[in-house]
Design goal:
This protein has about 180 residues and is mainly alpha-helical. The protein has one domain: Up-down Bundle (Four Helix Bundle (Hemerythrin (Met), subunit A)). Helix content is about 60%, strand content about 5%. It has helices at about 15-20, 25-45, 60-85, 95-100, 110-130, 130-135, 150-175, and strands at about 140, 145. The longest helix has 28 residues, at about 150-175.
Length: about 180
Amino acid sequence: MQNIRPQVSEYAPYYERYIAQVPGDDVLSVLRGQAGEVERLFGRVGAGSETFRYGPDKWTFREVAGHLTDAERVFGLRAFCFSRGERAPLPSFDENAYVEEGRYGGVSLHDLVTEFVAVRAANVAFLSRLEDDRWTRVGTASSHAISVRAIAFIMAGHVRHHLAILDERYLPAMRS
């Protein structure tokens, strides 16, 4: 069932913006490939630019990398819990508060990217072992019903979303 796109009934409308960014139906292939994409894009950032932000109140490269890992952990936990039949609702998370509490300014971009790659690898290993009926299991997160399959697509689309912003807004502005 991982090779079938989630139905709109499997997630809150907010997440359509992420799911729509995932090409095709093979979400595991997309998830596997993104670790290299993240490494390549952040690898283009020189050490002196890791704390660059393209505008006021925008995150730095380090903070974006930290946010990707935060979200990867949260989405991975949700998928894990719901695949195991968890009935208790899981809370939302305030991405800005998590980034602030993450104190990513004191961590090298290399270390943050390495951490993301490790968390993604753990999530892919877990998702790769799921039996078909686990992909369609549904739980509640952020007060909305969501399937394990939708979460996997959201994980992939969320990373694509942020990599596009980095490529379109951060890297060109950094060169200016």
